[in-house]
Design goal:
Blueprint (H helix, E strand, L loop, with lengths): L7 E8 L2 E12 L2 E4 L1 H4 L11 E5 L5 E8 L7 E4 L24 E6 L13 E7 L9 E4 L14 E4 L2 E8 L8 E6 L7 H6 L3 H16 L5 H15 L8 H11 L3 H17 L4 H14 L7 H12 L4 E4 L4 H12 L5 E2 L8 E2 L2 E3 L4 H4 L6 H12 L11 H18 L9 E5 L9 H15 L4 E5 L3 H19 L4
Helix pairs in contact: 3-5, 3-7, 4-5, 4-6, 6-7, 6-14, 8-9, 11-12, 11-13
């Protein structure tokens, strides 16, 4: 989802002689505005400021109410107001709880200049480079070498990195001459049950957690051994719970705050211990079933899943994702399809690859330079036909292409539910050498394959070496589980 300045609002309190400027907020869901707690609470007060009002740039003032505020020192709040107009499509479409690397470019828009007489009427944009911030930290520092004379009114503004909200502006630390800000990272509050409930996520969270808990709980005959797996997983994830509610506690933690890497690592350790103790094979099948089910709903890529669902629901057949590995591509695409992961058998030492992922043939890289992509389409058709032995059944290319398209359409739209598995072709920028022509080649591929194989979904993977480094850790844990025999 593309960041929009129309989602930035000005927050004030009404007084007898006008309005008192307080700070900035950001629409993150219909009727829900994210801001800093100190913007809407006076210092030392337990009740919100009276008569809060907000408006978009150039709009009319609307009354606002605080519906959630941070606890344990978190300087974050969520307010409710009816502003009308466009809003983000889903509460998690903008919010990202990823780790922040040093020297990433950030920006924030708001009303930094606090004026005594009248509120600011024009948005101002500021930006700079981030400091590093790992999962679990409650402050993200921001370097801002170019800054306005007064920062006050920027409190509560969204810190945007790569079109995603990663933090909320908090304060201006002393001793930096206005060239540094502190902010509260999204990771510090995204898991909070009250915050998620105020965003309207409770039903969705309960549905996802319920499906995970059912796998962990199991049927009566398997309850004891699955309880042991749940307890081991809880220990690895540092989840505290009463003995009779471990499965639910683990499921809730996974859905709200656990990263895919942490879940995969914990399950890898559990699986290794089970394998070493010669546990019943069915116990270890539980680990795999659980992992394939959990990975697509991990918080790491909720935004990508939402983007993909809206894209394909709109009858588009191509999407761009900031990924690098086939393993994570399968996970995200499984989330988009609302299914479990399905990995194909991989060579010894190889990373797991989705059962319905098609790599762009190496020979097609030269064909991408065809003026109309005809050769590319032919190569992809033959690659898809070979596993189904269609290439020997049809002498004419036109018939072969029609048969491949029919097969793709069946899998994507008409197969029984347990067989439903759309096919995706991966277009990996890094495999093409990171050329500046990547976008042109992508457009050519979409045009040629969209015309010849409209039921084939195309995925452009734009991730680089940094994404690959992070994704490899996850892929290695998944691969280790896949590599252990169940006999």
């Amino acid at each position: 989802m593309t960041w929009s300045r129309t989602w930035v609002v000005h927050i004030v309190s009404r007084r007898e002689n006008g309005y008192k400027p307080l700070g900035t907020g950001t629409l993150v869901a219909p009727g829900r505005i994210l801001t800093a707690r100190h913007v809407v609470f006076a210092e030392g007060q337990s009740e919100p400021r009276p008569e809060l009002f907000i408006r978009r740039e150039g709009g009319a003032w609307s009354p606002a109410t605080v519906v959630w505020h941070g606890v344990d020192g978190l300087d974050v709040a969520l307010i409710e107001a009816d502003l009308g107009g466009t809003t983000p499509s889903h509460p998690l479409a903008l919010l990202s709880n990823r780790d922040i690397r040093p020297d990433e470019s950030w920006e924030a828009q708001g009303y930094p200049a606090v004026r005594k007489d009248t509120p600011s009427v024009q948005l101002e944009k500021v930006g700079g480079k981030t400091r590093s911030c790992s999962h679990g930290e409650q402050i993200l520092y921001l370097d801002a070498p170019t800054h306005p004379g007064v920062w006050g009114g920027l409190s509560g503004a969204a810190v945007v990195v790569g079109q995603q909200v990663v933090a909320v502006v908090r304060s201006e630390p002393h001793g930096w001459n206005g060239e540094r800000l502190s902010s509260t990272p999204v990771a510090a509050f995204l898991h909070d049950a009250g915050f998620r409930a105020a965003l309207g996520l409770r039903t969705e969270d309960e549905r996802l957690a319920g499906s995970v808990a059912r796998v962990l709980g199991g049927v009566a005959s398997a309850l004891e051994r699955r309880a042991q797996i749940a307890a081991a997983l809880a220990q690895k994830l540092k989840v505290m719970s009463a003995p009779d509610a471990v499965a639910k506690a683990v499921a809730d933690e996974i859905v709200r705050s656990c990263r895919a890497k942490d879940v995969a690592m914990a399950l890898n350790h559990v699986d290794a211990a089970l394998a070493k103790s010669n546990t019943d094979v069915e116990d270890r099948r539980v680990v795999r079933t659980l992992l394939w089910q959990i990975l697509p709903i991990a918080i790491d890529w909720r935004q990508l899943v939402l983007l993909g669902r809206s894209t394909f629901a709109g009858r588009q057949s191509s999407i761009e994702l900031p990924l690098r590995s086939e393993t994570v591509a399968e996970i995200v695409l499984a989330g988009i399809d609302d299914r479990c992961c399905r990995f194909a058998p991989s060579a010894a030492g190889g990373v797991p690859i989705g059962a319905a992922l098609v790599r762009l043939p190496a020979a097609a890289q030269a064909a991408l330079f065809d003026i109309d992509g005809t050769r590319l389409a032919q190569l992809v058709v033959h690659q898809l036909a070979a596993p189904a032995h269609l290439d020997v059944a049809y002498a004419r290319y036109a018939d072969l292409r029609a048969a491949v398209e029919g097969t793709l359409h069946y899998h994507a739209h008409e197969a029984p539910e347990d067989e439903l598995l759309p096919y995706y072709l991966l277009f990996v920028d890094a495999d093409l050498g990171g050329s500046t022509d990547d976008r042109d080649l992508w457009a050519l591929a979409r045009g040629a394959l969209g015309a010849e194989l409209p039921s084939l979904r195309l995925v452009r993977m734009t991730g680089g070496a940094l994404e690959l480094a992070h994704e490899t850790v996850l892929a290695k844990h998944i691969g280790a589980i896949c590599a252990r025999t169940l006999s």
